[in-house]
Amino acid sequence: MDKSKWEYKKLGEVASFERGLTYSKIDESDSSTKGVLRSNNIDLDSHQLVFDEIKWLNESFEIPQSKKLAKDSIFICMSNGSKAHLGKVAFIDKDYDYAFGGFMGMIKPLNIYPKYLFYYFLSKEYRDGLEQIGKGANINNLRFAQLANFMIPNPVTDDQQRIVSELDCLNEMIALKQEQLKEFDKLAQSIFYDMFGDSDGYEKVKLGDVVEVVSGLVDPNTEPYCSQLHVSPANIVGGTNEIVNCVQAKSEGLISDKYPFKAGMILYSKIRPNLNKVAIARFDGICSADMYPLSVLPKANNVYITKLLSSKQFLDYAIKNSGRARMPKLNRETLFSYSFNLPPLALQQQFAEKIQAIEAQKELVKQSIAETQHLFDSRMDYYFD
After folding, report:
1. Among 4, 11, 197, 315, which is least packed by CB within 10 angstroms?
2. In the chain, what's the furthest Cα-to-Cα distance?
3. Residue 251: its pLDDT value, please?
4. 238 near 303, Cβ under 8 Å?
5. pTM for this structure?
6. Which helix (H) or strand (E) holds 314?
7. Does residue 64 carry a pLDDT above 60?
């Protein structure tokens, strides 16, 4: 493909725009057939439509067809309290009977291949353009007039289709590998229930008999703590027991005391709705005050206890006993009071070995995902830079 022959056109020349539906609180309903999608209905990472937490309007509310999601259009967030979500997009793969709210918009491709334009909105060029719009200002709103001047590389339609086919293929490879990771997580939980689902003959203990909460707050703004990685519930992926995207405490600009932890300890979120977030630390660091750093005593295995804290039984217990305060949390006494049958340490260690084998396979899949993602990113840079 000879990029030197490509034309460039302004976004406003190849697409039109429709702002979302305006409604008031009195128009809302607990349930109806008239749903409205908002910013939370675009997944920031996958750029997919999600259909959780739909807003419903009264049956009598009139929704123009132009305010409903149309096939081969691009759903975009035009206003959000978080800059990270501002301008995020999802491709609309078919006509939906859902409207979109006033903080959202729909970009309708006119003289350009629809999926090709969608991929432009995933490009670094687009993100850099958004950054320039917001530079030096606390901007949390976009206008299509600002986006309309973005210059879009515009090869002939056949080339656009070939580009989409290549990028779709890479995306599908990544999606399949991500599904593999989910299956590995399901396998780990299945092994846990197979090995320990019938544990009536084991020693009856309370969680407080096998773990300790690390005490002693630290000032994260002082050495050596300001150079350590900081973990909060946002850094733990629920259901996978993984810690991701941590930064040094000094990068967070922390001003309040935090808890220190050592590699091998378990980090557990005590605040609802993050009671499903638990992970084994692979490094020394500090964690936020809404987490428990747990040290496992010699009679238990940290991998086993982590899976126990990830189980449905424990999650049900934690939710039920986390209180009804403005910010419900599982206090230390309630955490330690959780009662269960503890298998022999040798059996726990057998379980840990199986989990470690699964984790090794997951690492290989993650490496493959990273390589495919790198290829995807490099092709995106080639086509849209």
Report:
1. 4
2. 75
3. 76
4. no
5. 0.80
6. helix 312-320
7. yes
